[in-house]
């Protein structure tokens, strides 16, 4: 008998089963990105310094500092299911989840005509079209970003000069059929979904945010999302390869600066439940 639990199969060294991390391997300020190669670009292009990456399956994590603040970036791979694994196992590494802040920096498709290719969308809340979060909460449960994270990301975008929008994000269960794309041989069951979401005033469509936000409320940590627009579904356009790198960099910088500013808001807030303008900044 191994003594390991099927409910929580971490090893004797406290290493989490899927992400391969132990307590102390990650900072409480965490940037989540989908592409593991993007995680490498964050560490190499933005961190002051960083240690060797820790990899397990598709998950890769770098921990270092950004402008002097301890920070980690994890590449999770795509989908709500991968996000669930990453977030739950990350939370096992901290005794106090309220000290943790997680921001997703990803890509998305815009659903409103006024949102340009390369712009950033800050998620205020998410429409839960994925099914992963249904394993934890009922269908009507709201997936909301922490208000401090929304403020920190808006502040970061303003400081960095990034064109940005605040809005409701729809999180789909997949990329093709779930987002209404009709590929030869694979007709979508919901081909009109983008028009329906657009009519409801939803800003963008992606595949991870609502799971992150639902789990953050359950566990009590601060979370939010900012995504670069790679496609506009209204006019059926997709970002040029030459512009994609710049959009990714703007999104990463917004996420990292957002984590930095979130620390300032938490410091000014003290033991209050949420920062507000009347508290000022320290």
Protein architecture, described:
One of its GO terms (biological process) is uridine catabolic process. Its EC number is 2.4.2.3. This is Uridine phosphorylase. It is an enzyme of class 2 (transferase). One of its GO terms (molecular function) is uridine phosphorylase activity. By secondary structure, the protein is an alpha/beta fold. It has one domain: Nucleoside phosphorylase domain (Rossmann fold). It is built from six helices and twelve strands. Strands 6-10-9-7-11 form a five-stranded mixed beta barrel. Helix 2 packs parallel to helix 5. The longest helix has 29 residues. The mean pLDDT is about 95.
Strand order of the largest sheet: 6-10-9-7-11
| Share of residues in strands | 15-25%
- CATH structural architecture: 3-Layer(aba) Sandwich
User: Which runs of at least 5 residues are low in confidence (pLDDT < 50)?
Assistant: none
Distance, first to last CA: 54 Å
Q: C-alpha Rg, in Å?
A: 18 Å
Q: How many runs of DSSP E, i.e. beta strands?
A: 12
* SSE topology string: EHEEEEHEEEHEHEHEEH
């Amino acid at each position: 008998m191994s003594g390991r639990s099927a409910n929580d199969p971490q090893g004797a060294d406290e290493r989490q089963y899927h992400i391969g991390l132990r307590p102390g391997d990650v900072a409480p300020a965490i940037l989540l990105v989908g592409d593991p190669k993007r995680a490498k670009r964050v560490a190499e292009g933005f961190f002051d310094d960083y240690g060797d990456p820790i990899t397990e399956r598709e998950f890769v994590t770098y921990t270092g500092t950004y402008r002097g603040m301890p920070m980690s970036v994890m590449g999770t791979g795509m989908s709500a299911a991968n996000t669930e694994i990453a977030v739950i196992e990350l939370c096992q590494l901290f005794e106090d989840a309220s000290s943790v802040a997680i921001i997703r920096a990803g890509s998305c498709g815009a659903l409103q005509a006024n949102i340009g290719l390369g712009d950033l969308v800050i998620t205020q809340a998410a429409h839960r079209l994925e099914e992963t979060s249904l394993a934890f909460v009922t269908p009507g449960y709201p997936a909301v970003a922490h208000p401090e994270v929304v403020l920190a990301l808006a502040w970061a975008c303003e400081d960095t000069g990034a064109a940005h929008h605040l809005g409701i994000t729809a999180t789909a269960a997949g990329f093709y059929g779930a987002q209404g794309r009709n590929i030869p041989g694979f007709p979508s069951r919901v081909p009109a979904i983008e028009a329906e979401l657009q009519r409801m005033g939803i800003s963008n469509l992606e595949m991870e945010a609502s799971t992150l936000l639902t789990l953050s409320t359950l566990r009590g940590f601060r979370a939010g999302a900012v995504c670069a627009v790679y496609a506009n579904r209204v006019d059926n356009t997709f970002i040029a390869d030459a512009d994609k790198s710049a959009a990714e960099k703007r999104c990463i910088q917004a996420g990292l600066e957002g984590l930095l500013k979130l620390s300032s808001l938490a410091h000014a807030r003290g033991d209050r439940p949420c920062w507000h303008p009347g508290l000022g900044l320290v």
